[in-house]
Amino acid sequence: MDFNERTALEKGFSDLFRSRVRPALMALETERRQRLARARRSVAIAIAVSLAVAAGLLGLFSSQDWAGPVAFMVMAVGVIAATGSYRQQKAGWKGAVEEAIMPAVCEHVGDLGYSGKGGQGFPLADMLSLGILPSYTRANLSGELTGRHFGTDFELVQAQLIKRTRSQKDNKTSTKTVFRG
Q1: Exposure string (b/e) for 125-154, b if CB count within 10 Å is 16 or more?
Q2: What is the pLDDT of residues 125-153, one digit of tens each?
Q3: How much is the pLDDT for 92?
Q4: Are residues 141 and 159 in contact, defined by beta-carbon separation less than 8 angstroms?
Q5: Maximum Cα–Cα distance for the chain, whole Å?
Q6: What does the angle CA 121 – CA 124 – CA 128 come to, to the nearest 5 degrees?
Q7: Which helix (H) or strand (E) holds 160?
Q8: How many angstroms separate the CA atoms of 82 and 155, rounded?
Q9: For 36-65, what is the mean pLDDT?
Q10: DSSP string, 103-149
């Protein structure tokens, strides 16, 4: 895996890519494969245990009316546990690639800063009052990029704005993403 420099801005980045980005990406790929193997193993164990317990219940209490539904519930709990375990492994991976790449990109471009968990002080309320953003009830911010360009400071964030509404007719709550970018 190499980086091909195509523009003047990219000049010199291939060395940085080779020395920092590529090794970080290779390590992340190794970690991703290990997480996937752990997730598959956890799923297999959870399902095997729930099937064994369900089969044991059915074998021991087959004459009881409640044995079938209880065995089914045990299997359902096993599937839920397997899904939770898989999602937990996946959640630990979120943002790892951008955390490996963005600091090197910022260093190369110069006068840039990056924080994957940043954006907490971003002036959303000001943007809302100016009419730049739609109304929202919840904001998820990440990927803060800060810097200076031609003497002007700037701050960019990745944002997902969600609006929660309640129906007056049946009092049900619904959510809708009103901005993502």
Answers
A1: eeeeeeeebeebeebebbbbbbbeeeeeee
A2: 898 899 999 999 999 888 888 998 888 99
A3: 67
A4: yes
A5: 81
A6: 160
A7: strand 152-166
A8: 40
A9: 88
A10: HHHHHHH-SEEEETT--TT--HHHHHHTTSS---SEEEEEEEEEEEE
Supply the pLDDT for residue 130.
Answer: 92
Least Cα distance to 120 among 94, 146, 148, 84 occurs for 146
Residue pair 136/157 in contact (Cβ under 8 Å)? The answer is: no
In Å, what is the CA distance from 121 to each residue of 56, 106, 153?
56, 20, 15
Q: What are phi and psi of 107, to 5 degrees?
A: -65, -40
Residues with Cβ within 8 Å of 115's Cβ and at least 6 positions away in sequence, in order, are 143, 144
Distances (CA, A) of 95 to 14, 40, 72, 91, 132: 23, 21, 37, 9, 27
What is the distance between the alpha carbons of residues 27 and 6, in angstroms, rounded to a whole number? 26
Q: How far apart are CA 50 and CA 59, in angstroms?
A: 14
Residue 26: strand, helix, or coil: helix
Distance from C-alpha of 172 to C-alpha of 181, rounded to nearest angstrom: 28
Burial of residue 98, with CB atoms counted within 10 A of its CB: 0-12 exposed, 13-18 middle, 19 or more buried: middle
Instruction: Tell me which of 97 and 176 has the higher pLDDT.
Output: 176
Residues 6+ apart with CB under 8 A from 103: 114
